Amino acid sequence: MGSTSDLRPGVVIKFNGENCQVLESEHRTPGNLRAFYQVKMRNLKTGKKLENRFASGESIEIVRVEKRNYQYLYNDGQSLIFMNPEDYEQIPIDPAILGDQINFLRENDEVSLSFEGTSCLSAELPASVNLLITHTEPGLKGDTATNVTKPATVETGATVLVPLFINEGDTIRVDTRNGSYMDRVKV
Q: What pLDDT band is residue 10 in, cutting at 50, 70 and 90?
């Protein structure tokens, strides 16, 4: 057990019987009222974002979470197979745990998995990945002045909106949290 003073971004707590990861925590002391913590969190099972107000000093249940890096091997049709690079143990993970980040996952990519005991709670890709453009309409010289975008298919099969000057065969950096184009990578 812990108290509300332990609420920091990244901490996993038990809230209404579900594991939730704290995204933001702000201590507020309004005028002549009692102090409280305004906490934004994400349900690790459903991905739904929640907001709650905890009284200052209130007891909360902190879940002990262990993070380990794993290498993604392949998709067997029902689950994603990851390997621990230290002991070569392979484990299956439900694709729903990755959410939309699965669109940017390539074989041999390193992923940070969070475990409570033996069950996997969440998976995090690096903040950005470099991906090769496999299909897009050709760009024209001088198309750098405007903020217009076009769809492009990357090597994982995902579609990303890119500026007009990006061509097939270019490598781009994509933000895995929201799937947006960041910049072109010089190879």
A: confident
The dihedral formed by the CA atoms of 112, 116, 120 and 122, expressed in degrees to the nearest 10? -50
Residues 115-165 have pLDDT tens digits of 888 888 888 888 899 999 999 988 666 666 667 888 999 999 999 999 888
DSSP 79: S
Residue tagged 């990945």 (tokens): 129
Tell me the DSSP string of 64-78: --EEEEEEEEEE-SS
Looking from the CA of 61 toward its CB, the CA atoms found within 13 Å total 8
Q: CA-CA distance, 60 to 49, in Å (whole number)?
A: 18
Residue type, 32: N
Burial per residue of 76-108, b for 16 or more beta-carbon CB atoms within 10 angstroms, e otherwise: eeeebebbeeeeeeeeebeeebbeebbbbbeee
Please indicate, yes or no, whether the overall pTM of this predicted structure exceeds 0.85.
Answer: no
Q: Domains in the chain and their CATH numbers?
A: 2-62 (2.30.30.30), 66-124 (2.40.50.140), 128-185 (2.40.50.140)
Give pLDDT, residue 87: 92
